[in-house]
What we know:
single chain; mainly alpha; 3 domains; three-stranded antiparallel β-sheet; 10 helices; 5 strands; 58% helix; flat
Amino acid sequence: xxxxxxxxxxxxxxxxxxxxxxxxxxxxxxxxxxxxxxxxxxxxxxxxxxxxxxxxxxxxxxxxxxxxxxxxxxxxxxxxxxxxxxxxxxxxxxxxxxxxxxxxxxxxxxxxxxxxxxxxxxxxxxxxxxxxxxxxxxxxxxxxxxxxxxxxxxxxxxxxxxxxxxxxxxxxxxxxxxxxxxxxxxxxxxxxxxxxxxxxxxxxxxxxxxxxxxxxxxxxxxxxxxxxxxxxxxxxxxxxxxxxxxxxxxxxxxxxxxxxxxxxxxxxxxxxxxxxxxxxxxxxxxxxxxxxx
Length: 293
């Protein structure tokens, strides 16, 4: 059974396997070297050496060797992460593989039930072969299932976390996420929103960068610049006008694409419009007259 005790330095509650009694290692919160109590209920003590940091962490027995679980060193070492992950996996393969298997079985059962229910109803109504586009009701059912099952996706993480911090866990931990159901839903929405905004910013940034360099070709045509000079000149010339330039080029490109829709023949009419607008934009930004006689 895991033992729990308060760190004598920072007061945080520390959990460790029963085999960690009377062993020494750094507190996972404040990094102060502490000695776990030999008897449950007794207080932990600050290690006599008074050392802290990676040097003290090195004195901790590794997972599976009968001591405390390996605690943070404050450093990211890929080799150490992979080695420790494999050690924990070997020592607890049954529980870890079992937790993932149970999770997949539950998820598979729910989604398979929804699919076969939909398929059965469609076949019963004479709709065969099945349509490639699922009916709206099925889409709604899938979204509801996603919401209901959301904490279960993180069930194996609960098992792993308990195992790594307390030294033991069980399959019941798979469902502990439902204690924080709305937190999971809210966090998922926020993460998706942040990712969407990030992708949107990257896409817009890419288009703005393309607009900033879009006059490169005119610098070559008009001034005969070399590649680097043309790129540099385009970048300088578009400063302060990149968003508007992007919008103008986008409209010109859309107009040009209309020719492709007309069986491709119309491109001979719309492409020149794009080129004319392109030259006008270049001349305007160069301080030249926008039109031509």
